[in-house]
Design brief:
mainly alpha, single chain, 84 residues
Length: 84
């Protein structure tokens, strides 16, 4: 087992302080002022959802067009057949 760290840095204490549920976060006087950044329209899910606006509609429209093209737009031209 290693001896005490000469720098005085304790990784376990650092991890505990960095945790959002840590004792230090509860004692932070600015914590309640910072919570708006991670709730409501600014939650992680909502921020990710708004990265590519219209991507869902475009994906559905493109898929619908591909299905339509495959089912109803058969080509009568058979390129490569009979051209020996």
């Amino acid at each position: 087992m290693a001896g005490p760290n000469p720098t005085g840095f304790d990784i376990n204490e650092f991890k505990a302080a960095a945790s959002p549920r840590s004792v230090w976060a509860k004692k932070d006087p600015w914590a309640r002022h910072e919570t708006w950044r991670y709730t409501g329209p600014f939650s992680r899910f909502n921020r990710f959802k708004r990265i590519f606006p219209g991507l869902g509609i475009a994906s559905v429209a493109f898929t619908g067009y591909c299905v339509y093209e495959a089912m109803f737009m058969k080509s009568d031209h058979h390129h490569g057949e009979g051209h020996h």
